Amino acid sequence: MHAPLLTPVEARLIDCWQRDFPLVAEPWPEVAAAAGTSPAAARAAVANLIETGLAARLGAVVRPNTAGASTLAALVCAPAEVSDLGPLVSAEPGVNHNYEREHARLPLWFVVAGADEPAVAATLERIGTTTGRPVLALPLEREYRIDLGFALGAASLAAAGPHRAGSQPPAAPVATATVSADDRALLAAIEDGLPLVERPYRTVAERLGLDETAVLARLTAMVAGGAIKRFGIIVRHRPLGWRANAMVVFDAPADAIDDLAGLFLDEPAVTLLYRRRPAPPLWPYRLYAMIHGRDRGAVEGVIGRLVARAGRPLGHEILFSSRCFKQTGARFSRLPEPVL
């Protein structure tokens, strides 16, 4: 599949505004100036990116386990069963990502979110009951690099690659902002994206019966505290040309994971890097790296460099994504309720 042709304005908007979208009453003059266009043209370009499927929305990416609870999970099944079982998993409201990956015993991987950990556990139990298959829960223990942008650098994606886009993000902070029930209502109001109007935060405030300054203050606090880890244009990497995407898992002693992650952080092609609780004996892996590339050869080259950086034999498995059943942002308007 050929990479899509973007207008120069669309490419600049993606490069500049995947994070740090202005939290001011009238954001579009600043957004437009960075893209060399007018506010109205900038809004129209963002709308076109969303309408054509190159972007999902303009809004917030919320750090896991701040406005609720979540976990990565995998279904133990045969690859031949995925076509039947994938839609059953996606039907759960708490599932926001659901991918088929190339693996003989764990071919279906999904993310479950809920109001709290018992609600997540209840969803996992329902999935196990509905599918009749065991479910492995693999909760996050530490994030090293997560949710970086995809920089283009040109109207055509021919010479572009995934790396940090927009301003350089700091090392991932520990989320300190208190996410209240009112904050969750605000996140629910923008879960499908900001309205593409001159004063988007006023429109959101009117929906919630709030003042515009209060909405801006709460969003600013959630960004500063780390509950919102990125605020901007949320692109869809596959339509933008990164179609060879692999999750690579590494088996190393628990006390060596942090040092190993430090070595891997020097590889810019690693777009996500985090530590998860293992599920032995089937799944002993603790360190996960996500690599997005244009072709399998390029991704495999990155994996080879990672293994070389370790400086010693390192057990690992490569799970290329082969099909997407579901991909949405976190749905705060319908998170499974707390289990009392």
Outline the secondary-structure elements.
Layout: H1 8-16, H2 28-35, H3 39-51, E1 55-62, E2 69-75, H4 82-90, E3 95-101, E4 108-114, H5 117-131, E5 135-138, E6 140-145, E7 150-151, E8 161-162, H6 181-189, H7 200-208, H8 212-225, E9 228-235, E10 244-251, H9 257-264, E11 270-276, E12 287-293, H10 296-310, E13 315-327
Helix pairs in contact: 1-2, 2-3, 7-8
Overview of this structure, please?
This protein is of the alpha+beta class and 340 residues long. The protein has helices spanning 8-16, 28-35, 39-51, 82-90, 117-131, 181-189, 200-208, 212-225, 257-264, 296-310, and strands spanning 55-62, 69-75, 95-101, 108-114, 135-138, 140-145, 150-151, 161-162, 228-235, 244-251, 270-276, 287-293, 315-327. The strands form three sheets. The chain has a nine-stranded antiparallel sheet. A hairpin with a 6-residue loop joins strand 3 and strand 4. It is globular and about 55 Å long. It starts with 7 loop residues before the first helix and ends in a 13-residue tail after the last strand. Mean pLDDT is 87; it is low at 154-176. Belongs to the Ahb/Nir family. Its EC number is 4.1.1.111. Residues 69-144, 240-326 form the Siroheme decarboxylase AsnC-like ligand binding domain.
